[in-house]
Design goal:
This protein folds into two domains: 5-95, Rossmann fold; 149-264, Immunoglobulins (Immunoglobulin-like). It is built from three helices and 13 strands. The chain has helices at residues 37-45, 64-69, 83-92; strands at residues 11-16, 51-56, 72-75, 149-156, 160-162, 167-176, 182-192, 203-212, 217-225, 231-232, 238-239, 243-250, 257-264. Helix 2 (64-69) links the parallel strand 2 (51-56) and strand 3 (72-75).
């Protein structure tokens, strides 16, 4: 980057993996970016101009150092023939980025396997690594846009529902706290407190898009199909068991806003 920094007002750099490194039978034992790319981005950040990094890859790479030095990161994965115009429209603001991660990004390769819907084990949840924090770099469902959102006031419409009810109903307030219109992706995760089989600590059970003008706030009524709280037993049958469920609502799988209800058997 042999240039005069006073001739430009921001930097956009593209890094990542070639598409030939992705796909079936192309596993890797190290999720680091290709050699030299992180150091190159850090040298650009040292110039002091606003820095946007576009990452093209077919897997979740280790991007902690990139996140620390970049002002914005766009993870484009491997796109099709219209990937170029899509990235351009997003970078220039013609399109508001609304994507949310379909995978969890680890901080280190040694954290794998790491995913939001891990099974409960009975072990102390706080016991983890001695050289790394337990939390991922980016959570499943994480994503930003050119505005910002908040969720609040989550409540259940009834404290209990029969197991054969078609839906359970919740409500919450969604607010656009940013400077422009946008669509919030509200995600709902559930935790089954007691079950006949080991179940995930939390699992995605519902989502919805809420369009909001700048500074707008809405109370949203949500109906979640009760069958999404069930699981398939050893006979391959969908089972909805009675008991307590806690719902978490937010913008990614780390959502902590919660409310509980009970499913009651017949």
């Amino acid at each position: 980057h042999n240039h005069k920094s006073n001739q430009i007002d921001q930097i956009v750099v593209f890094i990542g993996e070639d598409s030939s490194r992705g796909g079936e039978h192309f596993s890797v034992s190290d999720l680091s970016l290709p050699p030299g790319q992180v150091e190159y981005v850090e040298s650009l950040a040292a110039i002091g101009l606003p820095l946007t990094v576009v990452i093209t890859a077919g897997r979740p790479l280790l991007i902690e150092r990139i996140l620390r030095c970049a002002d914005a990161v766009l993870y484009s994965f491997h796109g099709g023939v219209q990937a170029g115009p899509g990235v351009f429209d997003t970078l220039t603001g013609a399109h508001d980025p609304r994507g949310h991660l379909p995978i969890t990004f680890p901080r280190a390769t040694g954290q794998i396997p790491i995913y939001h819907n891990r099974k409960t084990t009975g072990r102390p949840w706080s016991n983890g690594y001695i050289d790394q924090v337990d939390q991922p770099s980016l959570a499943f469902g994480y994503g930003l846009s050119y505005t910002s959102f908040e969720v609040a006031e989550l409540s259940v419409n009834a404290s209990s529902y029969p197991c054969d009810a078609e839906t359970v109903e919740l409500s919450l307030r969604v607010s656009n706290t940013g400077p422009r219109a946008g669509k919030a992706l509200i995600q709902f995760y559930a935790h089954d407190h007691v079950a006949s089989l080991a179940r995930p600590t939390r699992f995605l059970c519902h989502h919805l898009w809420v369009p909001l003008a700048a500074a707008e706030s809405q109370v949203v009524q949500v109906r979640i199909p009760t069958k999404r709280l069930g699981f398939y037993n050893r006979q391959g049958e969908l089972t909805i068991e009675p008991g307590q469920f806690t719902f978490y609502a937010g913008l990614d799988s780390n959502a902590d806003l919660n409310a509980s209800l009970e499913l009651v058997g017949s």
